[in-house]
Amino acid sequence: MKNTALSIAGLALPVLCAPLIAQTGKPNIVVIMTDQQRADLCGREGFPLDVTPFVDRLAKEGVWFDKAYTVAPASSPARCSMLTGRFPSATHVRTNHNVPDIYFDKDLAGVLKENGYKTALVGKNHSYLKPSDLSFWSEYGHWGKNKKITPGDKETARFLNQEAKGQWLEPSPIPLEEQLPTKIVDETLTWIESQKDNPFFVWVSFPEPHNPYQVCEPYYSMFSPDKLPLLKTSRKDLEKKGEKYRILAQLEDESCPNLEKDLPRIRANYIGMIRLIDDQVKRLIESLKASGQFENTVFVILSDHGDYWGEYGLIRKGAGLSESLSRIPMVWAGYQIKRQIAPMVGHVSIADLFPTFCSVIGAQIPAGVQGRSLWPMLTGKTYPKEEFSSIVVQQGFGGANVPLDSSLTFEQEGALTPGKIAHFDELNTWTQSGTSRMIRKGDWKLVMDNYGKGELYNLKKDPSEIHNLFGDKKYSIVQTELLAGLVTWELRLQDPLPLPRKRYHFKQNPYNYLLSDLE
């Protein structure tokens, strides 16, 4: 038990050597992850601007979900859950500061190693993994590459650390060939080319479109700030959203005094970054198609969580469990994935990746894994629809909610660094205190906190989650149903580890389904 406290945008398209199918016959696995990418800014969901043309096309050649969710809208909790298949309440990683407290039996890296895979991280980690856990390690952060080798690496790091601390509103001086997504794809293709005799797994982890929202040309000018879709919410709606949102707004105003004026440019930069990433994802996947490896590789493209992108007059993340933060893009393609043009009917989680990969390679899902294998639904096989009729998201490190009063200032807490404009930590004592849970089922969403305060939204009629219907007698039946569903999920997510000793027999479905008689 482990318990530790072609040519795109002027870039050459590398041609890899012809593939050598691994002797094991097991497929390769490529996880392509972005950091802080909203799910709805894409053509496949009706967004009017051409932000993700390649992934949109790939989605309709494979399988995509419009009800995929993170486990918690923060990087480390989400990434630790992806790698272990366990929710934050079980991993103990409820915040970005609890990574050393990770708790699990077996994880993705261990199972892949047991099954003869060569493994790699190229990009952002922000999990408990360390270089010795994988075959290859090249880490990047929001401030550049960890091991700076070339002059370009050093200049990128200098700019990101010394100039673009919060958000960069001008065209980025970092040229396209030195932008982190480009460098990450370069390294990924080089490493894949070196893999000859073993199946491989690579986590391609882009630090963008996370702040500082810097983007170079031509992407800076690709989306004009004055032609963006209008926001449906504003700061006027914060009274309806609650104290944590209002505290976050105050923090942002203290750090970003011109936020309202700058917001259109920030929003344009954000989708420019996503388009840059889309082009680099295209370069990566088209390279593997050219080398003949696409059909023998499982691809999943997703994000760890979302971004307000101006919703409620806010940027980044922090308060609450809104769809803008909780719902994530998720697209599957490649090996044995059966094409489905429309979005897959089902509510899924980032925690479902690990058990799905277990099914892909023929490994048993380890004890303590709480996610469910998506492999039957991805490959067009029979699966229990009820199993995927709802999903939950968690938030909070526990204790009582912390109000904003004079006893603790933003500066004292560390959420605001004086003298550094737009440099603030949205994941702080105020926004993360207490405990909240949400459940999504069909068009409905329920949020409850540890004070018994509830939120109920019909997302089809109210996608911005402004009209709270909790307590309205007209919706008592659906409210009761969602409350029962949330309790059921909470019981399901009670950690079974350690398993009972001696004579008890622990029953586990091969796909980790609970609402199924399949054996």
Automatic annotation (TrEMBL):
Residues 1-22 form the signal peptide. This is Sulfatase. Keywords: Hydrolase, Signal. Gene3D superfamilies: Alkaline Phosphatase, subunit A. Belongs to the sulfatase family. The lineage of its organism: Bacteria, Pseudomonadati, Bacteroidota, Bacteroidia, Bacteroidales. Residues 27-362 form the Sulfatase N-terminal domain. The keyword Aminoacyl-tRNA synthetase does not apply. Pfam families: Sulfatase (PF00884). It comes from Dysgonomonas termitidis.
